[in-house]
Specification:
five-stranded mixed sheet, 19 strands, elongated
Length: 526
């Protein structure tokens, strides 16, 4: 079990234990039950051969042993086993050992480290936002990227100088596995300290960051890496895997492109995230979502002209969850697509109530995520909801962020024109914080620019922020667009907007986001 042989030559006639008993023990061992076994025996009776085959023997050689025949049997058996191992234990795309072999090797490495009082490190590596790469270059291009990534990581760990090894470090082993999808695992055996693992992780991140050529295009990737060490982070392979995965998940939530060692704090954060993920998947069925509404107010008249729908989650398990905690998670997991459909449906219902109550000119705004907008079923879904509720699309304003326009902008412009052709209003949210290109801004079929609150907060006293605000207002007016200032909390900010002819504003100065009942009270009082 410790040496993991590829082939066993077994005599049936042993001094202390019969060959049959040995076969029986091996066959019951889960790690050895598929081990090829060639029986060497002088027995000629069929019963012995049948019994040996039933116990797991692969082949027979009759004594006296012919050396040439022995060589041929060994060669053929090993060739067959190599082929079976390749199918069972290796990833056909990258040719790396797979997750099954990884778990066996990790378990064995931990036991060995315990026996010899060694240290080892487990590194889990995942490519950030790999789905985006598949969407750009297709499945075959994605496979090519995975092969290039595997070769780059292999190139890093083949570098004998990477750990600054001395002569006694020559037996350090680094084994790379492809464990799942866009994920790899790296096992560093017999390391001296955590700094060894940190050096390797940093080199891997740098290697992956270099552009990759796929179908004449340059592809840019980043990776998130979690690291757990034995014995500090776990006494068995399952705990090490859990700790390393937690550290990797923590890196991803913070934007990726980095590595993180496991710790109690990191593990607690990862468990919290897993809990959020599990709760989020049940939230729609449990009817835990609700919309709050923040008025959009005319700067000159102080009249409410519209409301922005803002998603809130009141979890039955943890209570009110901040939007900044669950919306990025919903985006990452793809849950934002069904949740976004629920938001649009609720916004349509709310618009009908508002118009029925006599507020027939009010517009309801809905935020769209990048994932929603790119979903193949998005246009049919929104058309179905608007038609089903008999809504005039002119009173629905769809808000998109600049980041949505960063990739394939020409195609995005066509998609936006399709929405305006259906009658919807369009606004660019958080304008100025993303990748603003004056080359394209005049081509975008939008009605409104929303100035991000980060520029508004200190616009009265900070000349740079004020310059940005004034420039956006001037640009919007030149293009025939409205402007909405977000995050207005002080009278001085409103006075500045009035002076510079901004059209609308939102913020706590007028009202924080409120639930449906308070919205109607607010509208009635105004």
């Amino acid at each position: 079990e410790e040496t993991k042989p590829d082939l066993l030559l077994l005599d049936l006639d042993l001094s202390k234990l019969s060959g049959f008993d040995t076969l029986s023990v091996i066959h019951q061992n889960v790690k050895l039950k598929h081990l090829p076994i060639i029986i060497m025996t002088s027995a000629t009776d069929p019963e012995s051969k049948v019994r040996a085959l039933d116990l797991g023997a692969t082949d027979f050689l009759a004594k006296p042993i012919d050396k040439i025949e022995l060589g041929l049997r060994v060669k053929n058996t090993l060739a067959a086993k190599a082929y079976q191992d390749q199918l069972a234990y290796y990833d056909p795309m990258t040719k790396l050992p797979n997750n099954k072999l990884f778990q066996e090797r990790l378990d064995w490495a931990v036991k060995k480290a315990k026996r010899y009082n060694d240290r080892l490190a487990l590194m889990t590596i995942v490519l950030d936002k790999f789905n985006r790469i598949n969407a750009m270059v297709g499945p075959s291009g994605g496979d090519d990227v995975m092969r290039q990534v595997a070769r780059r990581i292999e190139g890093v760990i083949r570098n004998v100088d990477i750990l600054g090894r001395s002569a006694e470090d020559d037996d350090i082993k680094m084994n790379l596995f492809r464990t799942d999808g866009s994920a790899f695992s790296l096992l560093l055996d017999r390391i001296r300290g955590e700094e060894n693992a940190a050096v390797v992780a940093n080199r891997i991140i740098e290697a992956i960051r270099e552009p990759m050529k796929v179908e004449s295009s340059n592809i840019y990737l980043t990776a998130s890496i979690g690291i757990a060490t034995f014995p500090a982070d776990g006494e068995d392979y399952a705990e090490l895997m859990h700790q390393a995965s937690g550290a990797r998940g923590y890196v991803k939530t913070r934007g990726g492109n980095s590595f993180q060692f496991s710790s109690k704090e990191i593990n607690a954060a990862y468990i919290k995230r897993l809990s959020l993920d599990n709760g989020l998947r049940k939230a729609l069925d449990r009817d835990e979502f609700v919309l709050h509404y923040q008025p959009e107010v005319n700067v000159r008249t102080n009249a409410i002209e519209g409301v922005e729908s803002l998603l809130r989650w009141n979890s039955s398990e943890t209570g009110l969850v901040p939007p900044n905690d669950f919306i990025p998670l919903a985006e990452e997991t793809g849950l934002i697509v069904p949740i976004g459909e629920w938001v649009i449906n609720e916004a349509c219902l709310q618009l009908k109530k508002l118009h029925k109550a006599g507020m027939t000119s009010l517009v309801v705004a809905v935020n769209l995520s990048v994932r929603q907008f790119n979903d193949p079923g998005f246009f049919s879904m929104i058309k179905r909801l608007v038609t089903g509720h008999s809504i005039d699309p002119r009173f629905i304003k769809l808000e998109i962020t600049e980041s949505l326009l960063m990739d394939d902008i020409e195609n995005k412009i066509k998609m936006l024109k399709r929405l305006t052709g259906m009658g919807f209003q369009l606004a660019i949210d958080d304008f100025g914080t993303g990748f603003s290109s004056l080359k394209y801004i005049s081509k975008l079929p939008v009605d409104e620019l929303k100035i991000d609150r980060s520029f508004i907060m200190d616009a009265v006293n900070n000349s740079s922020n004020r310059a940005v605000v004034l420039s956006v207002i001037f640009l919007a007016h030149c293009l025939g667009l409205r402007t909405v200032a977000e995050g207005i909390e002080e009278e001085e900010q409103l006075d500045l907007l009035l002076k510079e002819r901004c059209d609308l504003y939102q913020g706590f100065l007028f009202s924080k986001p409120v639930p449906e009942k308070k919205l109607f009270e607010l509208l009635s009082s105004r």
